[in-house]
Amino acid sequence: MRNPKRMMAATTLLAEAFVVFFATLVAARLSEVEQNTALIAGGVLLLLCLLCAGMLRSPRGYAFGWVLQVLIVASGFVVPVMFAVGLGFAVIWFFAVRIGDRIERERAEFVARQEGGEPTP
After folding, report:
1. What is the pLDDT of residue 117?
2. Using CA atoms, how far apart are residues 40 and 48, in angstroms rounded to an integer?
3. Can you say how many angstroms the Cα of residue 16 is from the centroid of all Cα atoms in its chain?
4. Are 106 and 5 in contact (CB under 8 A)?
5. What is the DSSP string of 33-69?
6. pLDDT digit string, tens, across residues 35-94
7. Percent of the chain with pLDDT over 90
8. Which CB contacts under 8 angstroms, 24+ apart, belong to 85-93?
9. Residue 9 contacts residue 62 (beta carbons within 8 Å)
């Protein structure tokens, strides 16, 4: 069985990577930051999203995901709309982790009931 928490968190990070890519293009063209600086910073942030999605097999990956959410919200200082977009993704991240934990717990309880021979409700 697939891990629902990891799937939801990884999907969130991959969607964020796309948003960071497009925000980087906007920042390179429209912000007051030098174009090369915006492209490098955005590229690093995009790669961190992808790296974090691969790190979700351990609890450190989820901790890194929270740090990444803060960095993406902070990117709003360069592209102001990223304050709202980053906050939106942080909320999605929160629910992906929280609901994923709940699904895992309920699945474990269900399996325990099945193995114990108890009837399912």
Report:
1. 62
2. 12
3. 7
4. no
5. S-HHHHHHHHHHHHHHHHHHHHTTTSHHHHHHHHHHH
6. 998 899 999 999 999 999 999 999 999 999 999 999 999 999 888 888 999 999 999 999
7. 66
8. 85/19, 85/23, 89/12, 89/15, 89/16, 89/19, 92/12, 93/9, 93/12, 93/65, 93/66, 93/69
9. yes
